[in-house]
Design goal:
Elements lengths: L1 H45 L4 H4 L1 H24 L1 H20 L4 H29 L5 H29 L4 H4 L1 H15 L14 H24 L4 H21 L15 H31 L4 H8 L1 H20 L2 H18 L8 H28 L6 H33 L4 H4 L9 H28 L6
Helix pairs in contact: 1-5, 1-6, 1-8, 1-11, 3-4, 3-5, 3-9, 3-16, 4-5, 4-8, 6-12, 6-13, 9-10, 9-16, 11-15, 11-16, 11-18, 13-15, 14-15, 14-18, 15-16, 16-18
């Protein structure tokens, strides 16, 4: 009897350590993502590169995740989650070291692509590992803690990133991953038993993953070139056509494979499709504004990276506080009202952001960020619950992967769209190509910068109105 109790206690400790390991993985992925956002103005200055080039530090990560996150999750099912999960940490660590040692913008962009491979392996397999290792009665709590760990990393990223830039340098944003990642890889390998599902008949949709990455890469490259060459440029036209061809091939493949990256049959459910479209437009506008804000704060208002980090966490603080309450409310009243109110609050917040000027005070900047955080908290948890609740139980994993793909797609397109609109606004304001390509020179003409910033935010904010529309028409609970 005593030995049985001891065995149960050892088993609980083992499960707790696995959960801690999963939370560490979620934390460093969230931390790295937000810390790097604060570093963008510094990287553009250090490497003397343009906005349209430095945006690829973010875009390459999103594009790789879009194509890989579902695929590597399925590979973990086929060949063992422990192997893929622990290897993900090692790849993340190695690529972080290479990012920290990068000597040019294109080097860091390439190494960020490698880092995304590790990040996809951690993200795709981490929660599955926790789900298998923990008792069924504790899985909900485990998923909540893993989600909280990611958002704590998201919350910590801007302040820690700004502090590191101001003290030991931007490279330590990446070097900090090394000891944590190595410890997590060791712990994963020691603690986890190899787990595989019954995967007879399951295939890996490699063609779909590749075609999806090609589609968005070509589209974003065309958007990237548009401000410099115009719509009539042959390169832009050819790239757009190739993107459409790749997308058509992607749809053709997805309608025929057994386990597609995007399961189009799920979109027959109105609640599911409207929730996904709401998510797409919200993430598009949020990422567009998040991409431009650091340049406004540092290059125009002359805040240091540390000060900028403290300002930018305002929305994350609110999200961490309100998201659990919003999730609890959605269980009782459904998602439609909460998502509609959340989207509307984000529209109002972004209107205030679009009216920021050259003399904006810290409270004037923080207020719309807090309002954005409140809107996102009211929107996201109920929307995620609606998506997963609208599909059959055997499709929950697919729906979860599609949610990540949709959010990352919206994020990547938002960054590309904001860079395109913003640089076009600078050109219309009279800045030369050399000035547009050099973020350091924007402070010479702050009025033109602010005007272009305001117009860009107003345009992308219009797209957030679509999120309100889709939140309203989604219907109640399940259709």
């Amino acid at each position: 009897m005593e030995s049985d109790e001891k065995q149960v206690e050892i088993s609980k400790k083992h499960a707790t350590l696995i959960l801690i390991n999963v939370c560490v993985g979620q934390f460093i992925v969230g931390l790295d993502q937000r810390a790097l956002l604060v570093a963008l103005p510094t990287l553009s200055h250090i490497f003397n590169t343009s906005l349209t080039t430095i945006q690829w530090v973010l875009l390459i990560y999103d594009l790789m995740l879009i194509g890989l996150v579902i695929t590597v999750g399925r590979l973990g099912d086929l060949f063992g989650r422990r192997r893929f999960y622990a290897s993900g940490f090692l790849i993340f660590v190695l690529s972080s070291a290479l990012c920290g040692a990068a000597q040019s913008a294109w080097q860091i962009i390439f190494f960020r692509g490698l880092q995304a491979i590790g990040g996809a392996m951690i993200s795709a397999n981490g929660r599955a590992v926790a789900s298998v290792a923990l008792p069924p009665g504790e899985r909900g709590k485990a998923m909540g803690l893993a989600s909280m760990a990611f958002h704590i990393g998201f919350l910590t990223g801007p302040t820690l990133g700004g502090f590191l830039i101001d003290t030991v340098g931007w490279r330590w944003i990446f070097y900090l991953n090394l000891p944590v990642g190595l410890w997590a890889a060791y712990l994963a390998w020691k603690l986890l038993e190899e787990s595989r599902e019954d995967v007879k008949g399951i295939s890996i949709d490699f063609p779909g993953a590749i075609l999806l990455m090609i589609t968005y890469s070509l589209f974003i490259y065309a958007m990237n070139q548009l401000p410099h060459t115009g719509w009539r440029d042959s390169t832009v036209i050819r790239t757009m056509i190739l993107s459409l061809v790749a997308f058509a091939m992607f749809v053709f493949v997805e309608l025929r494979v057994k386990t597609p990256i995007l399961s189009f049959s799920l979109f027959r459910n109105r609640l599911f499709s409207a929730s996904m479209l709401s998510l797409f437009f919200i993430t598009l506008t949020q990422s567009a504004i998040s991409f431009l804000m650091p340049f406004y704060l540092q290059n125009i208002l002359r805040f240091s990276p540390s000060q900028m980090g403290w300002i930018m966490i305002a929305n994350s603080v609110v999200i961490v506080m309100i998201a659990p309450i919003a999730g609890w409310l959605s269980d009782r009243m459904g998602s439609r009202l909460l998502c509609t109110v959340g989207s509307a609050l984000i529209v109002v917040a972004q209107f205030f952001i679009a009216s920021l000027g050259l003399d904006a005070s810290i409270p004037r900047i923080v207020f719309p960020l807090v309002l954005t955080g409140l809107g996102w908290a009211l929107f996201n948890s109920p929307n995620q619950s609606a998506i997963l609740g609208a599909v059959p139980r055997d499709k929950v994993g697919t729906a979860s992967g599609m949610t990540t793909t949709t959010a990352r797609t919206g994020g990547a397109m938002g960054v590309a769209l904001s860079a395109t609109l913003f640089t076009y606004g600078l050109a219309s304001g009279g800045l030369s190509l050399l000035q547009i390509e050099s973020p350091q020179s924007w402070g010479v003409a702050p009025e033109i910068f602010v005007r272009s910033f305001n117009h860009t935010v107003h345009i992308v904010n219009f797209l957030t109105l679509l999120s309100i529309v889709f939140s309203i028409v989604r219907g109640s609970r399940q259709e």
